[in-house]
Amino acid sequence: MNGLNEMTLSFSARSENEAFARIAVAAFVSQLDPTLEELNDLKTAVSEAVTNAIIHGYESDPSCQVTIEARIEGDSVSIAVLDSGSGIEDLELARQPLYTSKPELERSGMGFTIMENFMDRFEVSSRLGGGTRVEMLKRIESKKALYN
After folding, report:
1. Does position 134 have pLDDT exceeding 60, yes or no?
2. Exposed/middle/buried for 48, CB within 10 Å: 0-12, 13-18, 19+?
3. Given 14, 95, 107, 139, which residue is catalytic?
4. Of 18, 22, 38, 48, which is the active-site residue?
5. In this predicted structure, what is the pLDDT of residue 141?
6. 5 classed as catalytic
7. For 27-46, how does the pLDDT look when each residue is reduced to its tens digit (9 = 90+)?
8. pTM across the whole model
9. What is the 3-state secondary structure (H, E, C) of the chain?
10. Where is the Histidine kinase/HSP90-like ATPase domain (predicted)?
11. Are the C-beta atoms of residues 87 and 59 closer than 8 Å to each other?
12. Rounded to the nearest 10 degrees, what angle do helices 111-118 and 36-52 cross at?
């Protein structure tokens, strides 16, 4: 793969759009010929980030928008999931395994931990009342990525 390829996708903050986000990112990344494991890792990380934006950022308000920015450069894909929702009050606490601000929804509190473990790089930034941005990077170790 030569050069740079980018996409931006915005959709309503509806839980049924989480599957759409997974499929859209998987289709975009498919040009790097990822392994099934790499593809599943990416889809799971995107799913967690989008679900967090919908449930925590927007309180499941479907009138709001979630945005995904994806960029392929060389053998790597970077993905950002953004919302302009409520933001995270205590980012350090939110990143702790098993912590959830929505125990009544039976959330596992493992979203950030999963994203961090499935991706090669993971960063989250948030501003109270100003939304959250989750940035992830994954290097695709496929033959196609290595030879182009």
Report:
1. yes
2. buried
3. 107
4. 48
5. 87
6. no
7. 999 999 999 999 999 999 99
8. 0.86
9. CCCEEEEEEEEECCCCHHHHHHHHHHHHHHHHCCCHHHHHHHHHHHHHHHHHHHHHHCCCCCCCEEEEEEEEECCEEEEEEEECCCCCCCHHHHCCCCCCCCHHHCCCCCHHHHHHHHCCEEEEEEECCCEEEEEEEEECCCHHHHHC
10. 37-142
11. no
12. 150
52 annotated active-site: yes
* Residue 40 appears among annotated catalytic residues: no
How many angstroms separate the Cα of 148 from the Cα of each of 4, 32, 37, 124?
12, 9, 21, 31
18, 22, 38, 52: the active-site residue: 52
Structure tokens that stand for 118 in this block: 């499935």
Residue 135, token pair as written in the block: 């940035």
Q: For 98-122, what is each residue's pLDDT tens digit?
A: 656 555 555 566 678 889 999 999 9
